[in-house]
Amino acid sequence: MSDPLHIGRGGHRTWLKWHRGRRKASDPVFTAKRILEAMRLGASVEVDLVIHADHGCAVLHDKSLDRETTGSGLVRDASAETLRRLHLRGNDGTPLPDRVLLLDDLCDLLAKNPPHPDALLQLDFKEDLAALDPLTVENFAFAVSSLTNSLILSGGAFDAISLLANSAPGLMIGYDPCYGASLDRLKATGDHMSFIKGALDTAPAAGIIYLHHDIILAADQAGFDMIGAVHDGGRKVDAWTIGNANPTTIPKVTRLLELKVDQITTDDPEGLAAAFDQ
Fold it and tell me: Is the pTM of this model over 0.85?
C-alpha cells in the first residue's frame, strides 16, 4: 500500500490530513516521529497550539495538562522547562517515552529535517485574541519564520490568527467558523448560504475554510452544496474530523469525495486510504 496522502476520484484529489499527527487510529497524538514522517512524505498534518507561561506555544490540544501529558494543572501556568520534562500519554492514558513538544522544538526539528515540498503542517491555534501579548506574538514569529512555505495557521478566532500571521510574512492562514455565534445562528436558522458568506467575509485572507463534516452533509441533505459555495468564493474546504474507517464513516467520506472536498481531517489516514484503494 502507498503512503496515505490523498484519495483521487473523478479527476479530483482530496488530501487526507493526519489529525494531531496520527497516521492510523492506534497512534498516539503529537509525537515528533509521526509529524516528521508526515512532513517527509509530503502529507498534510495538523497539530494544536496552546500558550504556556513563557510566552510561547505548546503542541497540545487541551489547555489543561492532565489528560494528554504526565503533568497536571494549566498549560498557561507551566514554563517551557517544565513542559519539556513531561511525557505524552497514549490513547489509553499510559505514559509514553515521547515528550511534549513546544512550537520552537517542532520548528527546530523541521529545520533539521526539511519537509517535502508538498507537505503542509496546520498549526491550529486554540486560544483567542485576549490570550496574546506582544512577546508571545514575537516568539511565534521567530519560531515559524524560516518555515512559512510549509505551514498554515488556523483557528476559530480570526482576529488572533490575523495578528499572528501578520507577524510572520508569507504564512498561510485558514479559518474555522464552526464555533460560537455563527454556528448557533446556523443551527437556529438553517441558513447555510448566510453561514458560508459570513465565514468568507470574516476571513477574506483565509485560503482554507475548515468545516465540520456533519455540517457539510446536513447542508447537502437540505439541497445546499456548502463545498461548492466555498469553491465559488475561491477557497478550499477541509472537512473535519473523521475518526477511524468503519461502516459508519465510509459512506460519509464517499459523499464528501463526490462533493469534491479538498481535504479530509482524519484520525485514520491509513485506514481510509486502504478502504478507498479497494
Answer: yes
